[in-house]
């Protein structure tokens, strides 16, 4: 949770009471970073302290899926957490607060928080798909022997889950000082339509399998990229992926789903990138991930009305 002034940062970290000693460790690490703009850190288990007058809230904590747990059980536990955090934001944070949800299932948790904070504009809520976006950029860069910075305008459509659709039909790569389309540069359609997509979709699970822990460094970098773009905008000619509320008019995605789209950001306000042509291959994949989100939403809302 962060409060941002013109040149300084006040950050508060909230957790449940049994985790307070862990939070003390986070506090020490934040102090030890000697961050040039960091003025103070408050570690607390009180929502009224943590959420007070926030400019930016990063909701990282959620109930992780344990072995044998049904998706429904996971959603139920998380609806409770994000309903309470949404209500606390509604009560204590600034109405201009930007809320970024990271804890999984991030899209539906973000929708739950937004529905539970009716006095905060729904456009102020977004969930993290920048990690998937960065993964897609890196896979292309590795294949072409360039750096990730040379790749732009990849898109993650949909859910931050294995149904997400990483789309490079509109992506460009800088090769020998010239910008070319990724399909043209790679000349390997079968990889782009096959292993590339599954690698990005399954990357979170692959990291967990290798580390026995969820992604940490890459997730932190993606959160920093996401917030930097919300605060300072996206570079000219570039778009990024973010889970945001759908309006029913963009890319045939039903209204009121927290779906990852390509966006541009200016003056702390995001806009859909409009008018990108969508081929049949993409259409099918975009609809599939929308269907999963609609199902998650339905289940979450059942719990939301009874929680
Ligand atoms: C990731 O994409 O690395 C994580 O969201 C995976 C997870 O389930 O924690």
UniProtKB/TrEMBL annotation:
EC number(s) given by UniProt: 1.1.1.37
Domain spans labelled Lactate/malate dehydrogenase C-terminal: 129-303
Similarity annotation: Belongs to the LDH/MDH superfamily. MDH type 2 family.
Residues annotated to bind NAD(+): 15, 78, 102-104
Keyword Lipid biosynthesis: no
Name used for this protein in its record: Malate dehydrogenase
GO biological process, one term: tricarboxylic acid cycle
Cited Gene3D superfamilies: Lactate dehydrogenase/glycoside hydrolase, family 4, C-terminal, NAD(P)-binding Rossmann-like Domain
Domain Lactate/malate dehydrogenase N-terminal: 14-125
Function: Catalyzes the reduction of aromatic alpha-keto acids in the presence of NADH. Plays essential roles in the malate-aspartate shuttle and the tricarboxylic acid cycle, important in mitochondrial NADH supply for oxidative phosphorylation. Catalyzes the reduction of 2-oxoglutarate to 2-hydroxyglutarate, leading to elevated reactive oxygen species (ROS).
Species name: Fukomys damarensis (Damaraland mole rat)
Entry binding sites for substrate: 65, 71, 104, 135
Xref: InterPro entries: L-lactate/malate_DH (IPR001557), Lactate/malate_DH_C (IPR022383), Lactate/malate_DH_N (IPR001236), Lactate_DH/Glyco_Ohase_4_C (IPR015955), Malate_DH_AS (IPR001252), Malate_DH_NAD-dep_euk (IPR011274), Malate_DH_type2 (IPR010945), NAD(P)-bd_dom_sf (IPR036291)
Record-annotated active site: 160 (proton acceptor)
Keywords from the named record: NAD, Oxidoreductase, Tricarboxylic acid cycle
Reactions it catalyzes: (2R)-2-hydroxy-3-(4-hydroxyphenyl)propanoate + NAD(+) = 3-(4-hydroxyphenyl)pyruvate + NADH + H(+); (S)-2-hydroxyglutarate + NAD(+) = 2-oxoglutarate + NADH + H(+); (S)-malate + NAD(+) = oxaloacetate + NADH + H(+)
Signal peptide interval: none
A GO MF term: diiodophenylpyruvate reductase (NAD+) activity
EC category: oxidoreductase
